[in-house]
Amino acid sequence: MELPWRGRPGWWVVLALAVGIALGAAGTTLAGWSHPAPIVVELPPEPTPIVWHVYVTGAVARPGVYRLTPGAIAADALDAAGGATDGAALSRVNLARSLGDGD
User: Fold this and answer.
1) DSSP string, 33-79
2) How far is CA 96 from the centre of its chain?
3) How confident is the model at residue 6 (pLDDT cuts 50, 70, 90)?
4) Whole-number mean pLDDT of the chain?
C-alpha cells in the first residue's frame, strides 16, 4: 500500500505547521483558563462615629450630659446616669422613647 504523501517533498512541513497551529490554539485557550482576572473590591471608607449628647436630670443617681450612640432610647440614658433613685416615678416616663442629639 502506497501512502499518498510519500514521494511529495514538504509534506512534513505541512504536518508540522498543522500540529503547531493546533498546539498554539490549545495553549491560548488553556492560558485563559489558568489565569482568571483578579476581582478588585473597593471598600467604602470607615464612617466617622456619631455621638449624641443627651441631658439627663431629675430623680437619677448622676444627673448630667451623657454621650450616647445613635439609636439610643430613654432607658439607655437612664442607665448612663446611674439609674433611677428611690423617688423616681418611672411609670410616668416612656423608657422606650427614641432619643436624638440634644435631648
Assistant:
1) HHSPPPP--PPPPPPPPP-EEEEE-SSBSS-EEEEE-TT-BHHHHHH
2) 31
3) low
4) 81
